[in-house]
């Protein structure tokens, strides 16, 4: 609320404030309380217009165009001074002015001090003690985690470690693949196949011979060959199963097959000889049995008609022997056939 400064009141503000303050102080002192613990209200006048402008100028220090200073009437000179120094962007002093007085109003708290404390002489900052480090010198994730919470920072570092481990694993796998590719390339260069007339060494020949022997001794050679190829297909020593040294491999199998057939033929011939000898023995036994069976018949015939038999005895004996041999041969053939059937 604004009003004229010259307007008279029945109760001036300062008298009323003084009365309230005195009453409050007396009341609190009677109660034994500290007055500073209570709220005190004060009333002030708000001025406007030309009078307010004049009061504002009385509290300001103006620098005139001539360089002189105009100090307001409401200001009091403080018994201290300071030196004006201008600094550049790096903090270094570039200029230093003269000593300036300090002017304060009458309500300034510095007036309650007998003297201001003396400050040490300002020195230029030591550039050697200043760290030249910045964001670029800190770890790459310092700026990213600056505004994160503790849990978010831990999650960020955990994810970063996981990515680092994955990258290391990929590098190791890439190195292993490159090494394996180099080894395979060297193996391909070393194991270059020749033509069909390529001859293996003695060790390879022996391996081929043993493999062929196993194949011919198996009841299913084709299945055994496929199993060997599946288990040892990557081994260059078994490349003959895939077409290398084809002529030598065919020769080894043919030679072994011929040996097997010769052994089988020898076994069959021995078996046939054994059967012939058995047949001869059986034939002789059959003839002996036939002779023994016919002897009583001849004796009876001679006893019944001795003259007749004696007259034609030579032709009768020949016929009897021929019939006996025929029966013995027939019996031996049947016996030999039954033996062969039992063996097969």
UniProtKB/TrEMBL annotation:
It comes from the Eukaryota. Residues 319-344 have a biased composition (Basic and acidic residues). This is Uncharacterized protein. Residues 277-297 have a biased composition (Acidic residues). Residues 176-203, 255-344 are annotated as: Disordered. Residues 304-314 have a biased composition (Gly residues). It comes from Steccherinum ochraceum.
């Amino acid at each position: 609320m604004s009003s004229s400064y010259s307007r008279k009141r029945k109760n001036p503000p300062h008298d009323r404030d003084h009365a309230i303050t005195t009453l409050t102080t007396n009341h609190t002192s009677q109660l034994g309380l500290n007055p500073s613990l209570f709220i005190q209200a004060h009333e002030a006048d708000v001025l406007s217009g030309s009078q307010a402008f004049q009061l504002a100028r009385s509290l300001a220090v103006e620098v005139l165009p001539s360089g002189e200073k105009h100090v307001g009437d409401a200001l009091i000179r403080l018994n201290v001074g300071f030196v004006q120094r201008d600094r550049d962007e790096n903090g270094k002093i570039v200029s230093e002015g003269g000593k300036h007085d300090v002017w304060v109003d009458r309500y300034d708290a510095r007036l309650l001090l007998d003297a201001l404390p003396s400050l040490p002489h300002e020195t230029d900052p030591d550039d050697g003690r200043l760290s030249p480090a910045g964001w670029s010198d800190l770890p790459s994730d310092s700026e990213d985690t600056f505004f994160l919470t503790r849990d978010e920072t831990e999650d960020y570092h955990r994810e970063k470690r996981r990515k680092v481990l994955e990258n290391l694993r990929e590098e190791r796998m890439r190195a292993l693949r490159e090494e394996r590719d180099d080894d395979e390339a060297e193996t391909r260069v070393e194991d270059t196949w020749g033509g069909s007339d390529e001859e293996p060494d003695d060790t390879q020949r022996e391996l081929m011979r043993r493999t062929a022997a196993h194949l011919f001794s198996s009841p299913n050679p084709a299945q055994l060959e496929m199993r060997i190829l599946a288990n040892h297909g990557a081994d260059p020593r078994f490349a003959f199963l895939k077409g290398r040294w084809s002529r030598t491999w065919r020769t080894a199998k043919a030679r072994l097959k011929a040996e097997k057939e010769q052994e089988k033929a020898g076994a069959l011939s021995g078996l046939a000889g054994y059967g012939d000898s058995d047949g001869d023995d059986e034939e002789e036994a059959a003839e002996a049995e036939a002779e023994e069976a016919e002897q009583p018949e001849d004796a009876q015939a001679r006893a019944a008609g001795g003259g007749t038999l004696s007259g034609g005895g030579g032709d009768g004996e020949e016929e009897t022997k021929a019939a006996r041999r025929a029966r013995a041969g027939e019996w031996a053939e049947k016996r030999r056939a039954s033996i062969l059937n039992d063996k097969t």
